[in-house]
From TrEMBL:
Residues 282-388 form the Formyl transferase C-terminal domain. It catalyses: L-methionyl-tRNA(fMet) + (6R)-10-formyltetrahydrofolate = N-formyl-L-methionyl-tRNA(fMet) + (6S)-5,6,7,8-tetrahydrofolate + H(+). This is Methionyl-tRNA formyltransferase, mitochondrial. Pfam families: Formyl_trans_C, Formyl_trans_N. GO terms for cellular component: mitochondrion. The lineage of its organism: Eukaryota, Metazoa, Chordata, Craniata, Vertebrata. Methionyl-tRNA formyltransferase that formylates methionyl-tRNA in mitochondria and is crucial for translation initiation. SUPFAM superfamilies: FMT C-terminal domain-like, Formyltransferase. It comes from Galemys pyrenaicus (Iberian desman). One of its GO terms (molecular function) is methionyl-tRNA formyltransferase activity. Residues 8-18 have a biased composition (Pro residues).
C-alpha cells in the first residue's frame, strides 16, 4: 500500500452560523501543498525515512508530498505521484558494473508483460574515447535517450537509479524524483563507502562482500538508508574484474526486486550502522608502486589482483621505470631451489628461474613470480633475462647481488606535480 493512501481523511468542520442579512463569504481553503504538509506531519511528525530522527522531513517524504516538485510535465501526469508501476526511470552510470544494471532495466522495459518500467533514459559522463563509456555504448546501441552530465534532460521521472556514477547529486536534483534516487553499491555498507569498493575488497583480502541498494542523500557519498542488502563470499584469489562480474549481476537482480515493491522498500529502509565504516578512495598511480621492503608477497599479489587490469604494477630497474605485467605465486618446489637458498638476497632482488621461465623477486617475507614485464616494450621473463639481466651480470662480474634488484619507485606528490607544472613551458 502506498504510504499516502494511509493518511486519514481531514475532519469535516460544520459551517459557522451566519448572522441574518449577511452575504455568503467565499470559503477559505488551504492550497493543496499546505494540506499535504499537514498530513505528512500528522502521520510521521518530523521522523526521517528509515526510522532516523531529524528536525525536518526527509527528502523522500517531501518529494512524496509533492513539495519542491514542479507541477505538470511532458505528459500531464507530473503533478501526481504514481502509486505503483510502471515507473519512469532516469539512470546514472558509467562503467561495466553500471552497464549490467542498465541492461536489466532495459530488458524489463522491453518485456511488455512485466509492466514495471514505462520510460528509461540515461545520464553518463564525458569520455575521451570516441565510443564513450560502457553505459553510453549500451544506451546508444539500445536506442535509449542519453544525456552527458551535467545535462540531465527535462523529462518527468518517478525514480532515479545510480550505479558507479562518481558524481555528487544535488538536493535539488534528488527532489525532482518523487521516490528519490536509488544507488546500486557493490559492498556491504557501511564498509567501503566511496568510488572503488570492489578494488578495496580485493586489496584488503576481505572474505565476504555483497551489494547494497540504498537511497541517496545529498552532500555525502553512500550514507543513505539501506533498502536491500545481500552478502556473498569472495572467491579465493579472485581479481577485481572477476568479482565485479559477480556483483554486477547480483546488483542488477536486486535492483529489479526493489523496483517491483518500491513504496514498501522505501518504507522499510533502515539507517546504516555507525560502526564498521570504512572508505574506498580512488586508486592513484602511486598505489601501483611496489614497496619491496614493506609489502609481503601476499600483499603484492592482492595488489596485482585488485588493480593489475587497470594500472600495471610499477618499480625501478637501473633508474628506469619498469611495469610488471603478469604476477604469479611461487610454488614450493621453486622455493627450495638451491639458487634461491644459496645466496644472500635483499627485498627487490631479481633471479631468473630457468625451469619455470619466470623472474623471482624477493619481497619482505618471501618471493613472487613475474612472467612478463614492460621496459620500452613488452618482454617475457626470458627476454628480460637475456636482454638485461644476464648481460649485466656478465659485464659486472664483481657486482653484488644487492645491486641487481628492483627498487621502489617514488612518484612525485600532488604538490610536487603542481609545482613542476608551474615551471612547464
Amino acid at each position: 500500500t502506498h504510504p499516502l493512501l494511509l493518511f486519514p481523511a481531514p475532519p469535516t468542520v460544520p459551517p459557522r452560523p451566519r448572522p441574518s442579512g449577511q452575504a455568503h463569504a467565499p470559503a477559505q481553503r488551504r492550497p493543496p501543498s499546505a494540506v499535504m504538509r499537514l498530513l505528512v506531519r500528522g502521520c510521521w511528525g518530523t521522523r526521517s525515512a528509515g526510522g532516523g530522527a531529524g528536525g525536518r522531513l526527509s527528502p523522500q517524504w517531501i518529494a512524496l508530498a509533492g513539495l519542491g516538485r514542479s507541477s505538470g510535465g511532458e505528459d500531464g501526469r507530473g503533478a501526481r505521484v504514481r502509486e505503483k508501476p510502471p515507473w519512469r526511470v532516469l539512470f546514472f552510470g558509467t562503467d561495466h558494473f553500471a552497464r549490467e544494471a542498465l541492461q536489466a532495466l532495459h530488458a524489463v522495459r522491453e518485456n511488455k508483460e512485466e509492466k514495471l518500467i514505462e520510460k528509461l533514459e540515461v545520464v553518463t559522463v564525458p569520455s575521451p574515447s570516441p565510443k564513450g563509456l560502457p553505459v553510453k555504448q549500451y544506451a546508444v546501441q539500445s536506442q535509449l535517450p542519453v544525456y552527458e552530465w551535467p545535462d540531465v534532460g527535462s523529462g518527468e521521472y518517478d525514480v532515479g537509479v545510480v550505479a558507479s556514477f562518481g558524481r555528487l547529486l544535488s538536493e535539488a536534483l534528488i527532489l525532482k524524483f518523487p521516490y528519490g534516487i536509488l544507488n546500486v553499491h557493490p559492498s556491504c555498507l557501511p564498509r567501503w563507502r566511496g568510488p572503488a569498493p570492489i578494488i578495496h575488497t580485493v586489496l584488503h583480502g576481505d572474505t565476504v562482500t555483497g551489494v547494497t541498494i540504498m537511497q541517496i542523500r545529498p552532500k555525502r557519498f553512500d550514507v543513505g538508508p539501506i533498502l536491500k542488502q545481500e552478502v556473498v563470499p569472495v572467491p579465493p584469489k579472485t581479481t577485481s574484474k572477476e568479482l565485479e562480474a559477480v556483483l554486477s549481476r547480483l546488483g542488477a537482480n536486486m535492483l529489479i526486486s526493489v523496483l517491483k515493491n518500491l513504496p514498501e522498500s522505501l518504507n522499510n529502509g533502515r539507517q546504516q550502522p555507525a560502526e564498521g565504516v570504512t572508505h574506498a578512495p580512488k586508486i592513484s598511480a602511486g598505489t601501483s608502486c611496489i614497496k619491496w621492503e614493506e609489502q609481503t608477497s601476499e600483499q603484492i599479489l592482492r595488489l596485482y589482483r585488485a588493480i593489475g587490469n587497470i594500472i600495471p604494477l610499477q618499480t625501478l630497474w637501473m633508474d628506469n621505470t619498469i611495469k610488471l605485467l603478469d604476477l604469479v605465486e611461487v610454488s614450493g618446489s621453486v622455493l627450495t631451489d638451491q639458487k634461491l637458498t644459496g645466496q644472500a638476497v635483499f627485498p627487490g632482488s631479481v633471479i631468473y628461474h630457468k625451469q619455470s621461465q619466470m623472474l623471482l623477486v624477493c619481497c619482505k617475507d618471501g618471493w613472487i613470480g613475474v612472467q612478463s614485464v614492460m621496459l620500452k616494450k613488452t618482454l617475457t621473463a626470458t627476454d628480460f633475462y637475456n636482454g638485461y639481466l644476464h648481460p649485466w651480470y656478465q659485464k659486472n662480474s664483481q657486482a653484488q647481488p644487492s645491486q641487481c634488484r628492483f627498487q621502489t619507485l617514488r612518484l612525485p606528490t600532488k604538490k610536487q606535480q603542481k609545482k613542476n607544472c608551474c615551471y612547464a613551458t
